[in-house]
Amino acid sequence: MNKPQINDFIKTYHIQSVFTNAFAFLLNQHTCEQLDITDKNLSIDVELFEQELPDANTVALKSTVYQNNNKIGFYKLIFTYDGNLMDDFFVIY
């Protein structure tokens, strides 16, 4: 999958909404202590994803996590080529 195909993938499967909903679910299902954060006043940038192709069947999209306008980590979702969410990763630096 090349960059234009990934951009089409993002549009076709409404990845921005999926990302926003998955991130909100993550924050709602865990405590600050579990997430290793001081508060849940976090944001992600769903307009600009870093794109990775971990293998021949998946695409990974990563967004920077901000707290008070400071980069504190990233949130990554792994999808199959048919738009199914496989896994997510929440990493604090």
Structure description:
This protein has 93 residues and is α+β, with helices and mostly antiparallel strands. The mean pLDDT is 94. The longest helix is centred in the first third of the chain and has 15 residues, at 15-29. It has helices at residues 3-12, 15-29, 32-35, and strands at residues 42-44, 50-55, 58-67, 70-80, 85-92. Strands 1, 2, 3, 4 and 5 form a 5-stranded antiparallel sheet that branches. It has 3 helices and 5 strands. The protein has one domain (3-92). It is 31% helix and 41% strand.
User: Mean pLDDT across all residues, rounded?
Assistant: 94
Number of helices: 3
Largest sheet: 5 strands, antiparallel
Beta strands, count: 5
Q: Report the radius of gyration as a whole number of Å.
A: 13 Å
H/E element string? HHHEEEEE
Strand proportion: 35-45%
State the secondary-structure class: alpha+beta
Q: For the terminal residues, how far apart are their CA atoms?
A: 29 Å
Q: Estimate the global geometry from the Cα principal axes.
A: elongated
Percent of residues in helices comes to 25-40%
Total individual domains: 1
- Low-confidence parts: none
